Amino acid sequence: MPFQASRERRLFHPLYVYAGIADGVFSCGGKIVLADIKTGDPDSAAAHLQTAAYEAPWNLAHPELRVDERWAIQLTPGRRTPYRVLNYTAREDAWMDFPKWSACLSVYNEQPPRRKKLAC
User: Fold this and answer.
1) How many Å apart are CA 89 and CA 67, to the nearest integer?
2) Residues 6+ apart with CB under 8 A from 47
3) Residue 32's beta-bridge partner residues?
4) Per-residue confidence (pLDDT) for residue 109, from 0 to 100
5) Could you give the CA distance from residue 83 to residue 61 in angstroms, rounded to a whole number?
6) What is the distance in angstroms between the CA of the first residue and the CA of the last residue of the chain?
7) Inside any domain, residue 1
8) pLDDT of 67-81, one tens digit each?
9) pTM
10) Which CATH number covers residue 47?
């Protein structure tokens, strides 16, 4: 069965228990690309971590269609080229993106119980 591009794809990770919506997953040059579209600065939004968070549940659900590249596409209206593509998998430390995301998720999940205790 040929690969079908997907837009606004809901994703859920059963082990880490989080969900998100990937802006797009498509084929480009024979590679499966997961893309997130940004209107602001992707680096300020930690898009490298966000795309890693989306990649993990996608790969679990589609082991035969694993993501090859993670991109942020920054929209920049008014410029000659109205977009900029950042390939996060091309970075030397890309392998650290999911562990960093996992650490952020752990800290986030720890906070509600701590806030409740401090409020008493």
Assistant:
1) 10
2) 36, 38, 72, 86, 88
3) 27
4) 87
5) 30
6) 57
7) no
8) 999 999 999 988 899
9) 0.86
10) 3.40.1350
Residue corresponding to tokens 């410029």: 79
d(CA 80, CA 115): 48
Domain that holds residue 78: 6-119
Cβ neighbours of residue 38 under 8 Å, at least 6 residues apart?
45, 47, 72, 73, 74, 75
Side-chain half-sphere exposure of 33, counting CA atoms within 13 A: 17
Give the Cα separation of 38 and 88 in Å (integer). Answer: 14
Amino acid sitting at position 67? V
Provide the token pair at 64: 């035969």
Residue with tokens 């993990």: 56
Cβ atoms within 10 Å of 27's Cβ, excluding its own: 14
In a 3-state reduction of DSSP, which class is residue 108?
helix
